[in-house]
C-alpha cells in the first residue's frame, strides 16, 4: 500500500474507461461466466446499467456482495471491470483492497485511514469513474468502514472532489449462514432456487441484519449500514454439484483442454458438500477448481 507510488503512476496513466457501456455485453458476460447466481446477475445488471446510463448520478454506486466462499463475488467484480474499462480488472482505475493484506495492523488504523482517504480522493479526482473493491469486509476495521462511508453519501464533495461517478464494491462472507439456510429451505420444499427473490423470506433484510449484528465484522454498528449508502445488498447463493461441473468445464475450456465429462464428474464428486446428510452444496463453491484440475487430466 503505497499512495505515493500510486500518485506517480496515475499521472502517467490516462483514464481508460470504455467509450460506451453496453448493457447487452454485461448481460451476456453474466449469463455465460457466472453460474448459479440468478439473483446476483439480475441485481448487478440492473444496478450497473442504471448507474452507467445516468449522466448525472447523485451518489456513487455502492454494492455490497455477500455469500459463502468461492461463489463468484470476485468474479463479478472482474466482469464489471471488464465491461467498464479497457484494461479490465488490471485497469489503473480499479483498486482492490484486501482487509488482511492492506490493513493488517490494528494499531496503524489512523495511518491507514489517512492513506485510504488520500488514495480514494486522488484517484477519483484523476478519473471520476474509478472502481474501489474492498474484499474481506468482515475483517475490516470499522474505523476504516466509516472512513469509506464519508465518500459515499449524496452530493459528497471532499476538498472540491465529487465521488458521484465512482463505484464501490464491498465483498464479504457475512450473511452466508442466512443465505445458505434460505437456499436449503427452498431445496427441502422442492422449489427451484431460481424462484428465490431478493425479498423472499426477507432475504435482503436478513442479510442486512446479520451483518449489522456481527460483532466481529467490518460492518458492525457501522454507519455504512445506518446511513443507507449501500444501494444493493447482493446475495450469492451456495453452489451445487451441477454448478461445480460448469466451473470445471469453463476452466477446461479456458485452458484449451478438450472437455471430458468423466474427468469433470470425477473431480466434482471429490469436492466436499454440505449439509453432511444430503451433500447438496459445495463447501468451497468453485474455489480450487483451477488448482485441482491438473491432478485430474
Ligand atoms: N458462480 C460462479 N460461476 C463461475 N465461476 C465461479 C463462480 N463462483 C466461483 N467461480 C470461480 O471460482 C473461483 C473463486 O471464485 P471467487 O474468487 O469469485 O469467489 P468469492 O465468492 O469471491 O470467494 P471468497 O469469498 O472466498 O473470496 C474463481 O476462479 C471463479 O472464477
Task: Summarize the structure in short.
With 297 residues, the protein is an alpha/beta fold. The protein has helices at 3-12, 23-33, 38-53, 73-84, 99-102, 109-126, 142-149, 176-188, 203-212, 223-226, 241-254, 261-269, 289-293, and strands at 61-66, 94-98, 131-135, 157-158, 161-162, 167-172, 232-235, 273-274, 281-282. The chain has two domains: 3-176 and 202-235, Rossmann fold (3-Layer(aba) Sandwich); 241-293, no CATH class.
Write the layout of secondary structure elements.
Elements: H1 3-12, H2 23-33, H3 38-53, E1 61-66, H4 73-84, E2 94-98, H5 99-102, H6 109-126, E3 131-135, H7 142-149, E4 157-158, E5 161-162, E6 167-172, H8 176-188, H9 203-212, H10 223-226, E7 232-235, H11 241-254, H12 261-269, E8 273-274, E9 281-282, H13 289-293
Helix pairs in contact: 1-6, 2-4, 6-7, 8-9, 11-12
The chain binds adenosine-5'-triphosphate.
The radius of gyration over CA amounts to: 20 Å
Approximately what portion of the residues adopt beta-strand conformation? 5-15%
Please give the order of strands in the largest beta sheet.
2-3-6-1-7
Query: Low-confidence runs (pLDDT<50, min 5 residues)?
Result: none
- Count every helix, treating DSSP H or I runs of 4 or more residues as helices: 13
CATH architecture of the largest domain: 3-Layer(aba) Sandwich
Q: Give the overall shape, derived from the CA principal axes.
A: globular
Any idea of the CATH class of the largest domain? Alpha Beta
Structural class: alpha/beta
Helix content: 40-55%
Largest sheet: 5 strands, parallel
> Ligands bound here?
adenosine-5'-triphosphate
Average pLDDT rating: 88
Which sequence of SSEs, written as H and E, runs from N to C?
HHHEHEHHEHEEEHHHEHHEEH
Summed up, the domain count is: 2
CATH topology heading of the largest domain: Rossmann fold
Question: What's the number of extended β-strand segments?
Answer: 9
Protein name: Torsin
Organism: Megalops atlanticus (Tarpon)
InterPro entries: ClpA/B (IPR001270), P-loop_NTPase (IPR027417), TOR1A_C (IPR049337), Torsin (IPR010448), Torsin_1/2 (IPR017378)
Subcellular location: Endoplasmic reticulum lumen
Amino acid at each position: 500500500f503505497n499512495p505515493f507510488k500510486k500518485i506517480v503512476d496515475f499521472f502517467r496513466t490516462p483514464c481508460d474507461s470504455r467509450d460506451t457501456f453496453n448493457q447487452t455485453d454485461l448481460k451476456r458476460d453474466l449469463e455465460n461466466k457466472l453460474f448459479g447466481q440468478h439473483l446476483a446477475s439480475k441485481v448487478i445488471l440492473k444496478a450497473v446499467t442504471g448507474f452507467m446510463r445516468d449522466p448525472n448520478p447523485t451518489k456513487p454506486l455502492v454494492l455490497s456482495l455477500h455469500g459463502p466462499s468461492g461463489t463468484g463475488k470476485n468474479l463479478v467484480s472482474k466482469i464489471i471491470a471488464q465491461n467498464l474499462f479497457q484494461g479490465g480488472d488490471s485497469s489503473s482505475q480499479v483498486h482492490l483492497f484486501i482487509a488482511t493484506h492492506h490493513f493488517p495492523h490494528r494499531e496503524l488504523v489512523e495511518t491507514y485511514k489517512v492513506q485510504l482517504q488520500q488514495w480514494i480522493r486522488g484517484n477519483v479526482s484523476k478519473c471520476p469513474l474509478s472502481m474501489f473493491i474492498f474484499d474481506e469486509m468482515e475483517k475490516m476495521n470499522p474505523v476504516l468502514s466509516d472512513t469509506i462511508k464519508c465518500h459515499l453519501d449524496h452530493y459528497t464533495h471532499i476538498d472540491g472532489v465529487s465521488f458521484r461517478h465512482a463505484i464501490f464494491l464491498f465483498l464479504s462472507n457475512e450473511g452466508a449462514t442466512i443465505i445458505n439456510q434460505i437456499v436449503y429451505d427452498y431445496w427441502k420444499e422442492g422449489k427451484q432456487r431460481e424462484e428465490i427473490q431478493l425479498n423472499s423470506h426477507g432475504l435482503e433484510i436478513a442479510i442486512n441484519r446479520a451483518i449489522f449484528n456481527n460483532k466481529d465484522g467490518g460492518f458492525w454498528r457501522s454507519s455504512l449500514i445506518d446511513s443507507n449508502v449501500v444501494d444493493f445488498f447482493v446475495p450469492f447463493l451456495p453452489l451445487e454439484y451441477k454448478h461445480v461441473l460448469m466451473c470445471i468445464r469453463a476452466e477446461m475450456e479456458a485452458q484449451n483442454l478438450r472437455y471430458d465429462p468423466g474427468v469433470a464428474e470425477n473431480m466434482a464428486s471429490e469436492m466436499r458438500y454440505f449439509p453432511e446428510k444430503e451433500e447438496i452444496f459445495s463447501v468451497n463453491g468453485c474455489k480450487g477448481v483451477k488448482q485441482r484440475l491438473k491432478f485430474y487430466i
